[in-house]
């Protein structure tokens, strides 16, 4: 490269002379020696022309020099490179362009030899290219066109030196990209639409206004379908099946499905708002889209309705669901579930009941209530129980001291040894297979029943013979109490069993202050008639002094983040993180002006987050963004492997994103 270095040195020399003479010319004119100044100006002009000529000549000679390089290749190979039909370039490992063929100028509009590749293509991932080595293949958008870049790292090393170059070929894929977009935009998307609780809605509307209410709802839905260009079929009084193009879905997502807000604004004498649930499926074909739409609708209803769920091959997307759901007045479903469950119990030899890990009173109370019904049917029943939360130890001690339950609580290993082909498993207070008390037992038993009240998440126990998932219910104990009343004409429960159900119902409703409805109090009234001592239940859950002190310190350190949201943390290593976080977040809601609370608690290398709300803010939607879940007013999350400060930033970011939605 001596020739190239000489040209560089010559060009630099001319540049230096140009600067020196320019300085002297300015000084000469300042001294008003115009004759000498004119001569110097003429010399300056000649040097300028010479510099520009040299620069152009330099580029020509460099190009010529590189094109004449053999690169240890024969003439035929070199000729192929120079006249290759695709834009092609060679660059150093640092991204400096060494050479490109003439076709490459069609992309850039100019020669870019000796320039940094990323100064021309800012979006080009140089590190990604180097990592792929001999199988380079990346996508690039530039100048309104789409390119596939392929190539390899070539080795031109000699005995005494290492020399590597990156060879890249640019393939224009613009036409394919446009066609792919047209195809994707035109794909059919399936949608199931349901008017939530239409029967209850009509019952709460004066008879003379019902026809107008129905017409207004249908008008809103019809107008929305016309806007998106959809084709629909109403197959039940409250259900529609809709097909539309994928390009319309993108617009709906951008508008956050404003149809949800539009129908909520309907006021035709109805005492409760009109809400919709939509399940949208985007699959590879119509059949798959239809299956995805059904799964999305199940998810929307399982999360309480009044929302849209979109499902494609990889994920669920959630829109809406910001408001508290309305309790269903009808009790048809628990009656049907009770009859079906009775048949399943009668056909089984052994029944296993389990809840989630670190069980709470709602989980255990529901299991105890169901175990009584199984024993009343003359079947063997066992409750799988692992480690319990410390604050509920007295509650569990009362149960285990009862003679009927001393041998009923068993471990995972004991349960697995008792499983046979005629076993039945009932899972309560969770629908997430990842947090059940025993995943092995979940896989070992064929017939499974699910009873849960939490808003549905992405992970769901799907292979059940019977599923009773009711996010409108206050607690699983409320659901089980209703089932018990329909399983037998005169249901019999001991006082201990009734108090276990009442305890679960009380804890989940914060002693009947959160998410309670008519059916909640009806269930409590039924249990009260069986001899429940409400004072004894209250005393079971008194906090010890250590927990009370920690709770007070957490509350004292709380800060208001925005719109009545309080956030606090406990950065000391805590053996009972979930308990401390939950009791502190509950306590924060007792402060005037605070409607939502989050408490972060550290245990080993994991940050536990507890979220609580009086109903205005959906804490489940916030903590879902952090991998957690729960209910609209009660939710939690765990963040392993991060610091408290990092967890705090993630929480604030999730809050901000939820408010933006």
Protein architecture, described:
This protein is of the alpha/beta class. The chain folds into five domains: 2-68; 75-180, PAS domain (Beta-Lactamase); 187-320, Reverse transcriptase/Diguanylate cyclase domain (Alpha-Beta Plaits, 2-Layer Sandwich), CATH 3.30.70; 332-540, Alpha-Beta Complex (inorganic pyrophosphatase (n-terminal core)), CATH 3.90.1640; 545-660, Diaminopimelate Epimerase, Chain A, domain 1. The protein contains 25 helices and 23 strands. The strands form four sheets. The protein has a six-stranded mixed beta sheet. Strands 14-13-12-15-16-17 form a six-stranded parallel beta sheet. Strands 18-19-20-21-23-22 form a six-stranded mixed beta sheet, with helices on both faces. A hairpin with a 3-residue loop joins strand 22 and strand 23. Helix 13 crosses helix 18 (476-487), helix 18 packs across helix 20 and helix 22 crosses helix 23. The longest helix has 35 residues, at 34-68.
Give the overall pLDDT as a whole number.
Answer: 85
Number of helices: 25
Q: How far apart are the first and last residues' alpha carbons, in Å?
A: 60 Å
CATH fold name of the largest domain, please? Answer: inorganic pyrophosphatase (n-terminal core)
Widest sheet: strand ordering: 7-8-6-9-10-11
CATH class descriptor of the largest domain: Alpha Beta
Number of β-strand runs: 23
Q: Compute the CA-based radius of gyration.
A: 36 Å
The figure for the number of domains is 5
Superfamily (CATH H level) name of the largest domain: inorganic pyrophosphatase (n-terminal core)
Q: Roughly what percent helix? A: 40-55%
User: How much of the polypeptide forms β-strand, as a percent range?
Assistant: 15-25%
The main sheet comes to: 6 strands, mixed
- Given as residue ranges, the uncertain stretches (5+ residues, pLDDT < 50) are 1-11
Overall 3D form: elongated
CATH architecture of the largest domain: Alpha-Beta Complex
SS-based class: alpha/beta
